[in-house]
Q: What sequence folds into this?
């Protein structure tokens, strides 16, 4: 497969903080590549260096074979960018802003087709300040596509949106991929990474701690399933980890997650234990392990704390 | 070039769609002219001082004195008793009270020196500066007539100005200069808002050159400056008959130079302001002293001397001076060359600071 983005040994510090600490990765043609991590992990800094709007301290970045440091304008002409938060020109209409951005590029896509794609046909004459959050987000995706780019950069594209809007944007991104474009996306939403991305890099404190397909990341770290429940009294991890089939225990504010390689055995053993010791198990459910569990296992923290 | 044109149009659309910007740019200077014009046209031409006259002497000479004061056009004479008139002075109803005391005629008849007392409030500077010399002159004239001497040296007043400068003629070019200053300083406010909203950052992710952005902003503001100037000149002409006597080409050159200077100053200020909340006080801090210490509303001679260095440093002083010279042929404070030099100096200094410190993110 052909890599459209190559990043090698990227570093960037702000004063004493190493925002990006020796990061290397590839994004391949036609894939949705996700960078998953908590706020402040270095996702946005990494993305902005690749886009050519921020300078790295060291490391090498090429996009579509072009060195970003040497030819930033050439890179910018061939990529589409959506920043985390932009409220664009409040007094211009959707169509006017699109035409303005189209004028910055040597070639541009059809504005009307793009407006249709992001479902803003009814609002194309609306001023930007009157758009809803979801509409603004869709407009900024349309703007990122205005030059018909080969690579699309989306920084937390569904942050703060309602589930309906989020699903709309996911299907737009999938449509973009179906046109053979590559998408580089950052997110701190597990479901987004799991459902949307072909490959995910998990990033924490400026370092990539794992990169793979979402399913592989999970199965690599967990053959087990997760059993979650709440307890009405405190139990030591030791007690729980001795329960039949349990491989790992995590307790947080009365919420317990035990990972088990044999769920039926573990569940009945847990219920026996409860009867024996006279405590109550509530809200018990069993689920497959997710990227959240992977992150928790690798870092000892949840993504959203 | 395509990006430049569309950016210019986008600027124009945004500007026209913001009512506050339209008001401050076009209507505010016009209001200023209308209001100040109305105030001055009623005031300066028929200035008069209320002067009380108390005659306690019934001689013919005292009567002559009274007539002589009565002929001074800027005095509105009131006759009365000493107590009443002095009380009126204290109440602020008189600017001065002249008292011709009993025995005035008799003293003169004896060949002595008679006395006229002038009571005035020294805190009223106009009384001191204007009223007393007039009284002195009237007294001198009568004194000469009485003693029968002819003056050896006489002052003949001749004005050198070809055009009789009214207050409104003085004011309008100043308002024009002030409007250009405000245009330039406030033109950067939307850029700071764009920076806050990450619009500048987003533009930075496109191949658009920053120079194209800056030049389109500058060209747009020059166009607005021309419209603004035309509007001010037309309204002043139609309403107050303020002429445009000089060379249009020079006027346009100064409008451009002034706008560029204040745009550069605006960019410089925005370089030192984190956001719009800090930019606004910064602009106010710069523009208010200039409004009042640059001879826009009144000639600088009326200001106390210790302020002189401040006034001499302000670019608006020089822009106002040149536009005034061109429009109404007022007497020059400085030559055009000096004015161009000072404005150009400010332009270069502000530009260097702006380029050095302006942040795009």
A:
């Amino acid at each position: 497969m052909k890599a459209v983005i190559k990043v090698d040994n990227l570093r960037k510090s702000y004063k004493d903080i190493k925002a990006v600490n020796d990061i290397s990765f590839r994004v391949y043609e036609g894939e949705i590549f996700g960078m998953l991590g908590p706020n402040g992990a270095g996702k946005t800094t990494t993305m902005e260096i690749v886009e050519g709007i921020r300078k790295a301290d060291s490391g090498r970045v090429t996009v579509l074979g072009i060195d970003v440091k040497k030819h930033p304008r050439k890179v910018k002409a061939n990529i589409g960018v959506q920043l985390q938060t932009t409220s664009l020109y409040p007094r211009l209409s959707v169509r006017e802003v699109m035409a303005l951005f189209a004028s910055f590029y040597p070639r541009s896509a059809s504005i009307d087709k793009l407006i249709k794609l992001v479902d803003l046909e009814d609002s194309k004459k609306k001023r930007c300040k009157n758009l809803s959050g979801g509409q603004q987000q869709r407009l900024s995706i349309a703007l990122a596509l205005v030059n018909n780019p080969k690579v699309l950069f989306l920084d937390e594209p569904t942050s703060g949106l309602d589930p309906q809007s989020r699903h709309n944007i996911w299907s737009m991104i999938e449509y973009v991929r179906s046109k053979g474009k590559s998408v580089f996306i950052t997110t701190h939403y597990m479901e987004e990474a799991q459902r949307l991305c072909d490959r995910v890099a998990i990033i924490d404190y400026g370092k990539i701690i794992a990169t793979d397909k979402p399913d592989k990341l999970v199965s690599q770290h967990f053959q087990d399933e997760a059993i979650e429940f709440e307890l009405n009294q405190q139990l030591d991890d030791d007690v729980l980890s001795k329960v039949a089939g349990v491989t790992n225990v995590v307790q947080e504010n009365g919420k317990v997650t035990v990972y088990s390689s044999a769920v039926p055995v573990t569940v009945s053993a847990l219920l026996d234990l409860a009867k024996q010791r006279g405590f109550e198990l509530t809200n018990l459910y069993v689920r497959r392990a997710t990227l959240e569990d992977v992150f928790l296992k690798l870092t000892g923290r949840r993504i959203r704390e | 070039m395509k990006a430049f044109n569309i950016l210019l149009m986008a600027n124009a659309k945004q500007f026209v769609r913001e009512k506050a910007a339209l008001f401050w740019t076009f209507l505010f200077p016009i209001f200023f002219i209308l209001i100040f014009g109305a105030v001055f046209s009623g005031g300066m031409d028929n200035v008069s001082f209320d002067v009380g006259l108390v005659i306690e002497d019934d001689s013919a000479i005292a009567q002559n004195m009274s007539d002589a004061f009565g002929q001074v056009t800027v005095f509105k004479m009131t006759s009365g008793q000493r107590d009443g008139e002095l009380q009126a002075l204290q109440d602020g109803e008189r600017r001065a009270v002249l008292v011709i005391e009993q025995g005035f005629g008799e003293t003169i008849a004896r060949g002595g020196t008679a006395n006229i007392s002038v009571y005035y409030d020294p805190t009223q500077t106009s009384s001191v500066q204007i009223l007393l010399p007039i009284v002195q002159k009237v007294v001198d004239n009568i004194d000469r007539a009485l003693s029968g001497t002819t003056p050896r040296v006489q002052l003949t007043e001749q004005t050198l100005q070809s055009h009789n400068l009214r207050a409104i003629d003085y004011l309008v070019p100043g308002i024009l200069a002030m409007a250009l200053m405000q245009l330039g300083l406030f033109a950067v406010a939307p850029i700071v808002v764009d920076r806050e909203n990450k619009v500048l950052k987003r533009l930075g992710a496109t191949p658009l050159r920053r120079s194209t952005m800056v030049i389109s902003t500058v060209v747009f503001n020059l166009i607005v400056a021309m419209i603004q100037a035309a509007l001010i000149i037309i309204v002043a002409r139609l309403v107050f008959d303020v002429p445009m006597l000089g060379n249009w080409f020079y006027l346009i050159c100064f409008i451009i130079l002034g706008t560029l200077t204040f745009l550069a100053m605006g960019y410089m200020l925005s370089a030192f302001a984190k956001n719009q909340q800090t930019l606004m006080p910064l602009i106010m801090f710069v523009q208010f002293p200039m409004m009042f210490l640059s001879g826009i509303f009144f000639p600088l001679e009326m200001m106390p001397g210790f302020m002189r260095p401040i006034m001499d440093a302000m670019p608006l002083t020089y822009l106002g001076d040149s536009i005034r010279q061109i429009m109404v042929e007022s007497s020059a404070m400085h030559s055009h060359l000096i004015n161009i030099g000072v404005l150009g100096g400010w332009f270069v200094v502000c530009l260097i600071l702006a380029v050095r410190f302006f942040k795009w993110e």
Q: What stands out?
A: The two ends of chain A are 37 Å apart (CA to CA).
